[in-house]
Design brief:
It is built from 21 helices and five strands. By secondary structure, the chain is α/β, with parallel strands linked by helices.
């Protein structure tokens, strides 16, 4: 099959007018190649063994009638396109622009982490006053929903399951039927039949889970009536007095007794105690995620309050939030003055670590960035084929030489 695949001829490359370019990984972080997509047909037309700009330049010199090239922010690709196809329109992919912005914001929030930590520490009391959970409308449980079988009732239920058999054995016993015949007809053990013969009424099952908890019910009710009780203290007390069950069983039955007698006294864990005055800070990545979104989209109530506190007390974060929203709006609407946005960031009175570096990077690639905002082409199709290569590599692990992989990617429509 491998030889057949190697012998398959590749189709002739038709000069593309709109070209999509991106890198793909042989081994992530170690070695990469380049994939070329005809954006008008959404089909891969070639696979290059490296992401070096010279390799792309050599390919473009051969097929130099490209009109539009959609690419990521790699400077090596940009330089190769300029040298080989100086008249081609370059488009910086919008997804990569957003990824670059996300990295810049992550750097920014790390640079002001001390200010954020100082503010949150000063506002600790405000956070501690927040409710543990936001009230949610939940259907109240009825008495029927809360009803739980006691240990003895559970045993009784098991006895009922044997009762029909027991009565049948007693009936046959009264008729003088032999034990062996009864055991054969009813498919029972002879020893069980013998035990039924000797019983006037069916004895309860001796369960390994049964305990003598009922002996201590009054004592447990009295202890539960005391404010701030501990289940373990009650368990240790009844254990010394002869309770036969284990710790888990004991605590379980104590809770059921409390429910059964409708005791409302708060337990030790339920009594409000002062919280430790510490608020865990949100990570820079999470702040990056929240900076450009609507506050009501933050599902966690405490995280929403945390972020609102930053906006209310740090003017610089409000400025950054506005910049992010403007940038995302330009990408979404396909129009906007990116040069003005860059100029504002560069000349801002705030340090804006990460963002100013991002702005300088946009300025060095300004034509492609403007085309990325104003034109409809993007690298979405190319990214889809990069994901397809990942799947193909897994199928061909151990056999995926570059030539075999190239033919698989170009010739296969499904992967």
């Amino acid at each position: 099959m491998t030889r057949i695949a190697h012998n398959l001829p590749l189709p002739d490359i038709v000069q593309p007018k709109v070209l999509g370019v991106d890198d793909w990984a042989y081994r992530k972080g170690v070695s990469y190649g380049t994939i070329l997509i005809d954006m008008e047909t959404s089909r891969p037309i070639d696979l290059l063994p490296s992401r070096d700009g010279q390799v792309l330049k050599d390919w473009l010199i051969t097929y130099n009638d490209v009109k539009i090239v959609s690419r990521d922010r790699a400077s090596s690709y940009a330089a190769a396109i300029i040298e080989a196809c100086p008249c081609a329109i370059q488009i910086a992919d919008r997804f990569h622009l957003l990824m670059n912005l996300s990295d810049a914001l992550d750097t920014y929030f790390k640079s002001i982490s001390r200010r954020i930590r100082s503010l949150i520490t000063a506002k600790t009391n405000d956070f501690l006053e927040l409710p543990e959970k936001v009230p949610v409308n939940i259907r109240e449980e009825t008495k029927e929903d809360q009803f739980v079988l006691t240990a003895q009732e559970s045993i009784d239920a098991k006895v009922d399951q044997r009762m029909d058999t027991f009565l049948k054995v007693k009936e046959l016993q009264a008729k003088g039927t032999p034990i062996k015949r009864i055991a054969t007809d009813l498919r029972m053990s002879r020893n069980t039949v013998k035990s039924y013969f000797s019983q006037e009424s069916l004895s309860p099952i001796k369960s390994s889970r049964s305990t003598n908890i009922e002996v201590f019910t009054d004592l447990i009710v009295a202890r539960l009536g005391e404010s701030g009780h501990k289940l373990m203290d009650i368990f240790r007390e009844i254990k010394k007095l002869g309770y036969t069950g284990g710790r888990t069983q004991g605590c379980y039955h104590i809770k059921r007794i409390k429910e059964y007698h409708e005791i409302e006294t708060l337990g030790y864990k339920e009594i409000a105690r002062p919280k430790i005055p510490y608020i865990k800070p949100l990570s820079s990545r999470k702040l990056t995620k929240y900076i450009g979104c609507n506050l009501m989209d933050i599902k966690d109530y405490h995280e929403r309050f945390y972020f609102q506190t930053l906006l209310d007390n740090i003017t610089e974060i409000r400025v950054v939030r506005k910049l992010v929203q403007i940038f995302k709006t330009m990408l979404a609407r396909g129009c906007g003055n990116i040069k003005r946005w860059i100029d504002f960031v560069k000349h801002s009175k705030y340090k804006l670590a990460g963002l100013k570096t991002f702005a300088r990077g946009l300025l060095s690639d300004i034509e492609a960035v403007e085309n990325g905002i104003n034109m409809s082409w993007s690298n979405g199709t190319v990214e889809g084929h990069v994901n397809r290569i990942k799947s193909i590599k897994r199928q061909m692990y151990g056999r995926a030489s570059f030539e075999l992989l190239r033919k698989k990617v170009i010739l296969s429509r499904s992967g």
